[in-house]
Write a structure and sequence with these properties.
Serine Threonine Protein Phosphatase 5, Tetratricopeptide repeat, mainly alpha
């Protein structure tokens, strides 16, 4: 493992971001971990993120920021709940204890506080603390990226954009990881519908760093949101060699590629991507982004009338162990798709009841608050839809259509719920719902002209209602 090119104690001090450790090795490994997080890539020559973290803990077992990044990364991955996972809960406690026992800087203390708040599900407060750090230290990429993840999980679209916009003037092109700010900023821009500007930023990022998978991902979103299907397909294919190396984002970029095929009604091509990339990768990585993409793909295909056969059952093995996690509502809704798709009624009921229970007394857990305002009803709507009770599904979903953003994720990911409402409305026996379905399609068409999916649904509505 050669980390010699990364920043040592002195280099971090020179950037105004001193780290409380005397170990140069620990500082370099911290930088190596941060770099892989920003690039969405486990660099095997460094031993990947896990290898760097364990080497960093060996180099200085009491290095507070080492604990912040390792525990923080596990928390923002949302793959396990500190509520249930005692090992993760004790890692949070250990981080707090180490910080209290040492004379660390105010910035490092705030980092610890943010991680602790995030572990309790208090995402808004955690993000406020990360912003507090950025006010004095705008080049603290860890604070910026953790905040970005927090905003993403809250569906806080304006903040996704503005958090990056605020720090941009303080960054100079010679600084490490500078080019990756472009993709971050681009993503916030496209989630607030500034598609042209988002495209410009992402392409600038790619001209500096062609393998920046997050900038590629931003371009994929722009084409998706504008229903520029052929442009999207061409772009993903022409850049595949560049973005494939980002193991943490490759599956998600393949998912975007598959969305274009689904949009065109080319279901076989989409299923091929599912089988050879999305499912294969999610099974191997166990990463939450990979898992929810697999869930989302199968549910979208089934809504379109495609038979996905025993794929639900295979995916259930991956999602079922997460039934009681309830880390984010977004994840829960995706797990529910699988138990419904696999006709695993008991697992579906257990997930819903667990979520209802937590929503009763959410405390300061923002996700459990969202479960009460949005999550439980969307779960119920999906269950009704699965049972063929389409009018009940519409009654539950329609009032929430402008609140679904609160479950987090991106517009492209949440589009599944818009599609669900449309499918339920046009299949409902209520003529008012059918009319509503047609209205929603007109509205969809005006927002994304040239969408083959919208046209297919319009034809379906006409066929059903005449």
């Amino acid at each position: 493992m050669n980390v010699s090119s990364f920043r040592d104690c002195q280099a971090w001090r020179a950037e105004g971001l001193p780290l409380s450790t005397t170990s140069n090795e620990a500082c370099k490994l911290f930088d190596a971990t941060l770099t892989q997080y920003v690039k969405w890539t486990n660099d095997e020559t460094l031993g990947g993120i896990e290898g760097c973290i364990s080497a960093m803990k060996k180099a200085d077992p009491n290095f507070v920021m080492g604990h912040v990044i390792s525990t923080g990364l596990e928390l923002v991955s949302t793959t396990s709940s500190p509520r249930l996972d005692e090992r993760l809960a004790s890692a949070v406690r250990r981080t707090v204890e180490l910080a209290n026992a040492q004379d660390v800087s105010p910035r490092e203390k705030l980092h610890v506080k943010a991680v602790e708040l995030f572990s309790r599900g208090n995402f808004p407060k955690a993000c406020e603390v990360w912003e507090d750090i950025l006010l004095d230290h705008p080049t603290d990429f860890l604070a910026l990226k953790f905040a970005h993840d927090g905003y993403f999980y809250m569906g806080a679209q304006g903040l996704l954009r503005d958090s990056v916009a605020r720090v941009l003037p303080h960054w100079k092109p010679h600084m490490p990881l500078y080019s990756y700010l472009k993709g971050l900023y681009s993503f916030g821009l496209l989630e607030t519908r500034f598609y042209d500007q988002a495209l410009k930023e992402a392409m600038e990022g790619l001209s500096l760093t062609p393998e920046d998978a997050w900038s590629v991902h931003s371009v994929a979103h722009v084409h998706e949101m504008k229903a520029e299907v052929d442009e999207g397909l061409k772009f993903m294919e022409s850049r595949e060699k560049d973005w494939q190396v980002s193991d943490m984002l490759a599956s998600h970029n393949y998912w975007h590629w598959a969305l274009y095929f689904m949009e065109k009604g080319q279901y076989e091509s989409a299923l091929q991507i599912y089988d050879t990339q999305v499912f294969k990768r999610c099974k191997a990585s166990g990463a939450m982004l990979d898992i929810v993409d697999a869930c989302s793909m199968l549910w979208r295909l089934e809504m379109e009338g495609v038979c996905v056969k025993d794929r639900w059952r295979e995916l259930l093995h991956v999602t079922q162990p997460h039934t009681d996690d309830h880390v984010t509502v977004f994840n829960d809704l995706h797990f529910l798709m699988v138990s419904l798709g696999a006709k695993e009624t008991e697992t579906a009921r257990r997930l819903l009841e667990g979520l209802q229970e937590l929503a009763k007394e959410p405390g300061d857990n923002q996700q459990h608050q969202v479960a009460g305002s949005v999550g439980v009803s969307v779960c119920e709507a999906m269950m009704e839809y699965g049972q063929g009770n389409y009018s009940r599904a519409v009654e539950l979903l329609y009032p929430l259509r402008y609140s679904v953003v609160d479950i987090g994720g991106s517009d492209a990911q949440r589009d599944l719920f818009s599609q669900l409402l449309i499918h339920a409305a046009i299949k409902s026996e209520s003529t008012r719902h059918q009319k509503l379905g047609r209205c929603l399609l007109v509205e969809r068409d005006s927002a994304r002209p040239r969408s083959p999916l919208t046209r297919r649904l319009m034809q379906k509505a006409l066929a059903l209602h005449h």
